[in-house]
């Protein structure tokens, strides 16, 4: 089977891009032919090249709404799909979700749309527009995969047909046992957050909480880059945390860093279903997660970690203090998190469930002439 993935951005690596890379690579290992179509950008281009995944670039495919570029991208995508003629298109991210579904429907190419987070659920002026577009395009979309149950319920609440929406939880490929953390051992206690340095991720709240704790036996590791780097560095200086905070920037070896951590924190103001929580549980770390979007679906409160209200500094400080002071509890929560990952969030489970949906689509799809062999 020839499967093409379509994702909007190539200039940044987020959950959708990692998902496409991981799923595409696994499908190739199973003998399928795979390609990825995206907007321009070196980060995704390098990532796909490392895994020998064919990559088609449409420079006009960009995240912001731009009627001229959107029209140009639509034409180029139309021509490209006529040329490569895949058996199925797996579409990811909102802009690609609109343009891709339109072209696939017109060309009668079997397709589905995977939602990593609805654009209408993200703050901004485009939210009402995407509400209208998602209602409209749901009428031509045979199946929508949601990476969390919360996302599925958001779609149903919008008025999308429940039968079209299927939940397949996001997942992460496993790591070598040597990369599992030992959260009960070592000092200082290392608290790690993974995410772009943007207002959404609320790294400043974590820094203020650590400053409030006033503990010299704590180290904070912030992994990711973004527009807030300078202001966060300034805040670290103001809070007298310079010796206790490390900015790691974007890292491709996140698993190696998590292996050295003791506590994972993700206290975003909004999320869909963050993969970084799964990476932390895969490593055997206790987690502290804000109750936004579908983030809490990955956690069993009190068993694998803690769920705190977004922006609740008091609760965050209490959870941090409890985990910092109790190494054995960190170990118990981390072990339970690892077991939870093995039960629900392995990549083998995601591939199996996704291939089942692909098969159902192709069984009912009109026959088209493919540019590939099975």
Description:
It is a single chain. By secondary structure, this protein is of the alpha/beta class. The strands form two sheets. A seven-stranded parallel sheet has the order 3-2-1-4-5-6-7, sandwiched between helices. Strands 10-9-8-11-12-13 form a six-stranded parallel sheet, with helices on both faces. It is 43% helix and 16% strand. The termini are close together. It has 13 helices and 13 strands. It has helices at residues 15-29, 42-50, 67-84, 94-107, 127-137, 149-158, 203-213, 229-238, 254-258, 275-282, 313-325, 327-344, 347-364; strands at 2-7, 33-38, 55-57, 88-92, 111-115, 144-146, 165-167, 189-194, 218-223, 245-249, 263-266, 287-290, 305-308. It has two domains: 2-171 and 347-364, Glycogen Phosphorylase B (Rossmann fold, 3-Layer(aba) Sandwich), CATH 3.40.50; 177-344, Rossmann fold, CATH 3.40.50.2000. It comes from Gloeomargarita lithophora Alchichica-D10. Residues 183-339 form the Glycosyl transferase family domain. Keywords: Transferase. One of its GO terms (molecular function) is glycosyltransferase activity.
């Amino acid at each position: 089977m020839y499967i093409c993935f379509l994702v909007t951005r190539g200039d940044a690596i987020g959950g959708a891009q990692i998902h496409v890379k991981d799923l595409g690579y696994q499908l190739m290992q199973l003998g399928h032919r795979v390609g990825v179509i995206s907007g321009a950008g070196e980060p995704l281009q390098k990532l796909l090249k490392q895994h020998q995944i064919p990559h088609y670039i449409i420079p006009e495919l960009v995240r912001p709404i731009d009627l001229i570029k959107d029209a140009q991208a639509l034409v180029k995508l139309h021509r490209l799909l006529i040329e490569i003629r895949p058996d199925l298109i797996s579409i990811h991210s909102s802009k690609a979700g609109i343009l891709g579904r339109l072209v696939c429907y017109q060309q009668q190419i079997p397709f589905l749309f995977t939602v990593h987070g609805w654009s209408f659920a993200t703050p901004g002026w485009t939210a009402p527009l995407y509400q209208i577009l998602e209602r409209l395009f749901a009428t031509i979309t045979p199946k929508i995969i949601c990476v969390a149950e919360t996302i599925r319920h958001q779609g149903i609440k919008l008025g999308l047909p429940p039968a079209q929406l299927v939940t397949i939880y996001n997942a992460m490929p496993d790591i070598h046992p040597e990369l599992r953390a030992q959260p009960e051992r070592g000092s200082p206690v290392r608290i790690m957050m993974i995410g772009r340095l943007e207002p959404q991720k609320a790294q400043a709240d974590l820094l203020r909480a650590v400053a409030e704790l006033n503990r010299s036996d704590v180290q904070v590791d912030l992994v990711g880059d973004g527009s807030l780097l300078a202001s966060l560095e300034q805040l670290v200086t103001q809070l007298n945390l310079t010796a206790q905070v490390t900015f790691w920037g974007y890292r491709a070896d996140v698993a190696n860093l998590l292996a050295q951590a003791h506590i994972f924190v993700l206290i975003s103001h909004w999320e869909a279903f963050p993969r970084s929580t799964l990476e932390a549980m895969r490593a055997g770390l206790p987690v502290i997660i804000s109750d936004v979007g579908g983030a809490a679906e990955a956690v069993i409160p009190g068993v694998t970690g803690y769920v705190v209200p977004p922006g609740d500094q008091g609760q965050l400080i209490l959870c941090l203090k409890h985990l910092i002071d109790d190494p054995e509890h960190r170990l118990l929560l981390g072990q339970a998190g690892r077991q939870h990952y093995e039960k629900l969030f392995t990549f083998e489970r995601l591939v199996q469930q996704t291939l089942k949906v692909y098969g159902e689509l192709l069984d009912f799809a009109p026959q088209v002439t493919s540019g590939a062999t099975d």
